[in-house]
Amino acid sequence: MTSLNVLIGICLLTLTCLAQASDLVKKPSQGSVQETMDRLESIVTSKGLTIFNRIDHQANAAGAGMEMSSAQVLIFGNPKMGTAIMKQDAGAGLDLPLRVLVYQDAEGQTWISYHDPAGLRDQHQLEGNPAVDKAAEAIGKLTDGALR
Protein backbone atom coordinates (compact mmCIF):
# COMPACT_ATOMS: atom_id res chain seq x y z
CA MET A 1 0.00 0.00 0.00
CA THR A 2 2.89 2.39 0.72
CA SER A 3 4.29 2.09 -2.80
CA LEU A 4 0.84 2.90 -4.17
CA ASN A 5 0.71 6.03 -1.99
CA VAL A 6 4.17 7.06 -3.20
CA LEU A 7 3.12 6.52 -6.82
CA ILE A 8 -0.06 8.56 -6.33
CA GLY A 9 1.98 11.32 -4.68
CA ILE A 10 4.44 11.42 -7.57
CA CYS A 11 1.57 11.58 -10.09
CA LEU A 12 -0.09 14.45 -8.23
CA LEU A 13 3.19 16.36 -7.98
CA THR A 14 3.82 15.87 -11.70
CA LEU A 15 0.33 17.11 -12.58
CA THR A 16 0.81 20.18 -10.39
CA CYS A 17 4.12 21.00 -12.08
CA LEU A 18 2.60 20.53 -15.53
CA ALA A 19 -0.32 22.81 -14.67
CA GLN A 20 2.06 25.54 -13.52
CA ALA A 21 4.29 25.11 -16.58
CA SER A 22 1.30 25.50 -18.89
CA ASP A 23 0.81 29.03 -17.51
CA LEU A 24 4.22 30.05 -18.87
CA VAL A 25 4.04 32.28 -21.94
CA LYS A 26 7.13 32.76 -24.14
CA LYS A 27 7.31 35.16 -27.07
CA PRO A 28 10.35 35.64 -29.33
CA SER A 29 11.70 39.17 -29.73
CA GLN A 30 13.73 40.51 -32.65
CA GLY A 31 15.42 43.08 -30.41
CA SER A 32 18.09 42.69 -27.76
CA VAL A 33 17.20 42.18 -24.12
CA GLN A 34 17.95 45.84 -23.38
CA GLU A 35 15.89 47.14 -26.32
CA THR A 36 12.94 44.86 -25.59
CA MET A 37 12.93 45.67 -21.87
CA ASP A 38 13.27 49.42 -22.55
CA ARG A 39 10.22 49.24 -24.85
CA LEU A 40 8.25 47.25 -22.27
CA GLU A 41 9.14 49.66 -19.47
CA SER A 42 8.17 52.63 -21.65
CA ILE A 43 4.79 51.07 -22.51
CA VAL A 44 4.09 50.13 -18.88
CA THR A 45 4.90 53.68 -17.77
CA SER A 46 2.77 55.23 -20.53
CA LYS A 47 -0.23 53.19 -19.33
CA GLY A 48 0.10 54.67 -15.85
CA LEU A 49 1.10 51.41 -14.20
CA THR A 50 3.50 51.32 -11.26
CA ILE A 51 7.01 49.99 -11.85
CA PHE A 52 8.25 48.47 -8.62
CA ASN A 53 11.64 47.29 -9.84
CA ARG A 54 13.78 46.36 -12.82
CA ILE A 55 16.33 43.68 -12.08
CA ASP A 56 19.35 43.06 -14.28
CA HIS A 57 20.39 39.47 -13.55
CA GLN A 58 23.48 39.72 -15.77
CA ALA A 59 24.74 42.79 -13.87
CA ASN A 60 24.04 41.10 -10.53
CA ALA A 61 25.94 38.00 -11.68
CA ALA A 62 28.89 40.19 -12.73
CA GLY A 63 28.83 41.79 -9.28
CA ALA A 64 29.20 38.30 -7.82
CA GLY A 65 32.15 37.59 -10.13
CA MET A 66 30.11 35.35 -12.42
CA GLU A 67 28.96 35.48 -16.02
CA MET A 68 25.60 34.78 -17.60
CA SER A 69 23.69 35.81 -20.70
CA SER A 70 21.56 38.93 -20.63
CA ALA A 71 18.37 38.63 -18.54
CA GLN A 72 16.20 41.31 -16.94
CA VAL A 73 12.97 41.20 -14.95
CA LEU A 74 10.42 44.01 -14.78
CA ILE A 75 8.13 43.99 -11.73
CA PHE A 76 5.06 46.16 -12.24
CA GLY A 77 1.36 46.40 -11.69
CA ASN A 78 -1.74 48.32 -10.86
CA PRO A 79 -2.15 48.42 -7.06
CA LYS A 80 -5.91 48.88 -7.37
CA MET A 81 -6.25 45.77 -9.56
CA GLY A 82 -3.81 43.76 -7.44
CA THR A 83 -5.69 44.67 -4.28
CA ALA A 84 -8.97 43.53 -5.86
CA ILE A 85 -7.35 40.16 -6.51
CA MET A 86 -5.70 39.85 -3.08
CA LYS A 87 -8.90 40.82 -1.25
CA GLN A 88 -10.44 37.62 -2.58
CA ASP A 89 -7.37 35.51 -1.70
CA ALA A 90 -4.40 37.11 0.05
CA GLY A 91 -2.26 34.16 -1.09
CA ALA A 92 -2.28 35.67 -4.58
CA GLY A 93 0.17 38.22 -3.18
CA LEU A 94 2.85 35.58 -3.71
CA ASP A 95 2.34 36.04 -7.48
CA LEU A 96 1.73 39.79 -7.54
CA PRO A 97 2.83 42.31 -8.72
CA LEU A 98 3.24 41.03 -12.25
CA ARG A 99 6.70 40.02 -13.46
CA VAL A 100 8.05 39.80 -16.99
CA LEU A 101 11.42 38.24 -17.81
CA VAL A 102 13.29 39.24 -20.96
CA TYR A 103 16.30 37.04 -21.61
CA GLN A 104 18.68 35.75 -24.24
CA ASP A 105 18.95 31.98 -24.65
CA ALA A 106 22.07 29.96 -25.51
CA GLU A 107 21.41 30.41 -29.25
CA GLY A 108 21.25 34.20 -28.92
CA GLN A 109 17.44 34.45 -29.29
CA THR A 110 15.74 37.05 -27.09
CA TRP A 111 12.53 36.01 -25.35
CA ILE A 112 9.80 37.69 -23.33
CA SER A 113 8.41 35.32 -20.74
CA TYR A 114 5.76 35.55 -18.02
CA HIS A 115 3.23 33.49 -16.14
CA ASP A 116 -0.29 34.04 -17.47
CA PRO A 117 -2.27 35.68 -14.64
CA ALA A 118 -5.27 33.53 -15.64
CA GLY A 119 -3.39 30.68 -13.96
CA LEU A 120 -3.89 32.43 -10.62
CA ARG A 121 -7.43 31.07 -10.61
CA ASP A 122 -6.13 27.53 -10.26
CA GLN A 123 -3.41 28.36 -7.75
CA HIS A 124 -5.62 30.54 -5.56
CA GLN A 125 -9.35 30.86 -4.91
CA LEU A 126 -10.08 33.48 -7.56
CA GLU A 127 -13.04 32.15 -9.53
CA GLY A 128 -15.21 34.92 -10.90
CA ASN A 129 -12.70 37.70 -10.20
CA PRO A 130 -12.77 40.08 -13.21
CA ALA A 131 -9.43 41.64 -12.21
CA VAL A 132 -7.69 38.35 -13.08
CA ASP A 133 -9.05 38.53 -16.63
CA LYS A 134 -8.03 42.18 -16.92
CA ALA A 135 -4.50 41.41 -15.72
CA ALA A 136 -4.17 38.52 -18.19
CA GLU A 137 -5.36 40.69 -21.07
CA ALA A 138 -3.15 43.61 -20.04
CA ILE A 139 0.10 41.64 -19.74
CA GLY A 140 -0.55 40.06 -23.14
CA LYS A 141 -1.04 43.44 -24.81
CA LEU A 142 1.90 45.05 -23.01
CA THR A 143 4.32 42.31 -24.01
CA ASP A 144 3.00 42.25 -27.58
CA GLY A 145 3.64 46.00 -27.74
CA ALA A 146 7.23 45.50 -26.60
CA LEU A 147 7.81 43.16 -29.55
CA ARG A 148 6.97 45.77 -32.19
Strand order in the sheet with the most strands: 1-5-4-3-2
Give the full name of the CATH homologous superfamily: TT1751-like domain
Q: How many domains would you count in the coordinates?
A: 1
Distance, first to last CA: 56 Å
Helix fraction, binned, reads 40-55%
Derived from helix and strand composition plus strand pairing, the structural class reads alpha+beta
Report the radius of gyration as a whole number of Å.
18 Å
Q: How many strands, what sense, and barrel or not for the largest sheet?
A: 5 strands, antiparallel
**Uncertain regions spanning at least 5 consecutive residues:** 4-21
Order of helices and strands: HEHEHEHEEHH
**CATH top level assignment:** Alpha Beta
**Count of discrete alpha- or pi-helical segments spanning 4 or more residues:** 6
Topology:
Blueprint: H1 2-21, E1 24-29, H2 33-46, E2 50-56, H3 57-63, E3 71-77, H4 79-88, E4 98-104, E5 110-115, H5 120-123, H6 130-146
Antiparallel strand pairs: 1-5, 2-3, 3-4, 4-5
Helix pairs in contact: 2-6, 4-6
Description:
By secondary structure, this protein is an alpha+beta fold. It has a single domain (25-146), classed as TT1751-like domain (TATA-Binding Protein, 2-Layer Sandwich). It is built from six helices and five strands, in the order αβαβαβαββαα. The chain has helices at residues 2-21, 33-46, 57-63, 79-88, 120-123, 130-146, and strands at 24-29, 50-56, 71-77, 98-104, 110-115. Strands 1-5-4-3-2 form a five-stranded antiparallel β-sheet. Helix 2 (33-46) packs across helix 6. The chain is globular and about 45 Å long.
